[in-house]
Amino acid sequence: MGPECFAGAETVLLISAGAAEDDVVIARHEAAISAAEKAGVRHVVYTSLTGAGDHLSIALPHRWTERRLMDSSLLDWTILRNGLYAELIALGAMEAAGTGVLTAPMGAGRVAVVAREDLADAAAIVLADPGAHRGRVYELVGDRAVGGDDIVAAVARVTGKDAAYRPSGLAELREVLTAMGLPAWQVPLLVNTYSVIAAGFLDGTGGDLGTLLGHAPRPALEVIASFATPQGDLSS
What we know:
Layout: E1 11-15, H1 22-39, E2 43-49, H2 59-71, E3 76-82, H3 86-99, E4 101-104, H4 116-128, E5 136-140, H5 148-159, E6 164-167, H6 170-179, H7 186-198, H8 209-213, H9 220-225
Parallel strand pairs: 1-2, 2-3, 3-5, 4-6
């Protein structure tokens, strides 16, 4: 990636390129930031990971990128520390709607997930006036933490069918994911995510999302439950 990619740009939104091993992600981010510096970009807005996510295996490239931006003498920056997407947890709602059972190794853990639309809106607000957000780190998590029982209850409300949550073990999840033929790096990442949820490290609410948006975040359970119906679509 060369500086010509950002020719004429004053503000750049750097969306984390996390679908790879850590060294690949870091190299991608370094290339993008260096290109922005050489192109004379003034401000980079980076979509990072919630501060509560430091136990997640995906945290390292995010924290490296934050430090790289903060250490730059050529760039202003804003860090958007995004919580986990409600749409990811919605996969469980689809399972519960189809089988009547949500099987997941979340234990009694809960997670303050957030709608992707809210995160997109927050980024747009910052990009519209980046100078007003210079040097700011925003924690963008949901205002309610949800667990397995909450998910199946929401599914039951929208489908009219009973559903149950069955906590499973991490080894069981690892076997399922491996059998799906996922890339080798992705299996431990997903297992780790559920492990951190079960341990209670991602249940913190509050943060800056409502203030930045100017209104309450979208209710996470409504977003999740919408995927229990035929019109639910994770690709949108």
